[in-house]
Amino acid sequence: MNRIKLPSLSNQLLKSLYVPLFVTWIFGTLVVVVVASYFTEQAYDRALLDDAYSVASHVANKNSKNTQELVINLSANEMTTLLFDQSEIIYFQVLNIDGSLIAGHPGFEAALPEQGTAPKFSNLEFQDKNFRTVAIYRSQPAPFFLVMAQTSDFRAALIKRLALFSIVPQLLFLALLAMFLKGVIKKELAPLLDLENAVETRAVIDLTPVGVDTRTKDVHDLGTAINRLFFRIEDGVRLLREFSGNVAHELRTPLAGIRAQTEYGLSNKNPEIWYQQLQGISKSELRASHMVEQLLALSLTNEAKAGLINEDIDVDELVKEAVMRFLHRADSLGVDLGVKGYELGVKIKTQRSLLEGALNNLIDNALRYGVSEIESFNQITIEIEKTQHSNQPNFLEISVVDNGKGITDEFKHQVMRRRTQGQAGLNLGAGAGLGLAIVVEYAKLLKAEFILQDNTGSGLKAVLRLPLE
């Protein structure tokens, strides 16, 4: 048998882990880059602002306080020392309120803040370079603006290096984690592979339990479930063998009789003998069919143990259908088949096939053995009644009552066992003593009680008592 190519469980698990890990790495990297960029910018902007305040502190009036001409009290060497930066180029401007240049580097125009507001940072391009600028407003010794501009090449390079040094280690850790997870998943799935090999190499007839691994609960539960399946299959095989053996055993006698009657009839030329033999063959066939039906009914009890579905059943309708099935047979036997307690409107939640099977067997048993040749009027009544016993919940009693000879109290217990027949059954030469045994099995599965009682006057009353709650 060709196997369908499907992805392995380990690969599926790794894929399920790798994708979220990779997505997490991407988002983590973006967060690191954004945070690194933000704090780097903050640090450089703070240093640039400090330089601006430092230069602004050296701005003074040229001659006296009464004049408004501003100058910087720093020599060229002092200014060079103050603005020295090993990596970046720094420019500055001192501007009047009207924007005219007092001192510094001409040629670039930075965004200026409103008078009396906080320093204003901005970016600009000057002389083919990118600059970061800060502009501050000072009111003493006279109102003026001071602008500091610094190239941003080094800070951009620093941000790239920070991002690189954060991304590469994360990527290495991610690769190591993936390798670790692959090994762990392979190790943890080993019991599952062992279980697969144990089942795969198992012989067809070998239904012994497989070894259950106790390292993980899931594999342990799977192994236990497989063993339960083996137990159920073994029960099914055993029941099938038992059914086959029962059929072979029970049909041997009627089939042998049919063969003997057929050979005897063929060896004679008398049509009357043919007719007699055909009647015997018909009876043997009926007996064989009845045996097969009962054996199939017994096999149904074993299926029911595996679990049939409960359903809401209208008891009146179920009894009516049962009566209609046996009405023609009862009429041919001269038996009045009726119902007492009909139209109670009782509904019960149970297994329909089992309840039907129990009722069919009770009616069939009554028609076979509950008909008296002495009585001029034979009657079989199906009684439906609600009862309550010893303050227990309500019960539904379905009884099949006949007015035949009945049976002794001692024999009432014996006929409920398999392969036990009364004298009437032996005289008829029909059945295999399975009818009431089937009802007993069905009653157990229905959580019901099956009782045989004497009928008032004469006959037998077979009661099937089912709990309504």
Please explain how this structure is put together:
This protein is α+β, with helices and mostly antiparallel strands. The chain folds into 3 domains: 11-160, Beta-Lactamase, CATH 3.30.450; 204-307, Helix Hairpins, CATH 1.10.287; 309-467, Heat Shock Protein 90 (2-Layer Sandwich). Helices cover 53% and strands 19% of the residues. It has a 5-stranded antiparallel sheet, covered by helices on one side. The longest helix has 50 residues, at 217-266. The protein is rod-shaped, with a radius of gyration of 51 Å. The chain starts with 8 loop residues before the first helix and ends with a strand. Mean pLDDT is 78; it is low at 419-432.
Q: What share of the residues does DSSP label as strand, in percent?
A: 15-25%
Oligomer: single chain
Rg for CA atoms: 51 Å
Task: Please identify which CATH superfamily of the largest domain we are dealing with.
Answer: Histidine kinase-like ATPase, C-terminal domain
Order of helices and strands: HEEHEEEEEHHHEHEEHEEHHHEE
**Uncertain regions spanning at least 5 consecutive residues:** 419-432
Strand order of the largest sheet: 4-3-7-6-5
- Average of pLDDT: 78
Helix content: 40-55%
Task: List its traits.
3 domains, five-stranded mixed sheet, alpha+beta, Heat Shock Protein 90, 469 residues, five-stranded antiparallel sheet, 10 helices, Helix Hairpins, Beta-Lactamase
Task: Give a brief description.
The chain is of the alpha+beta class.
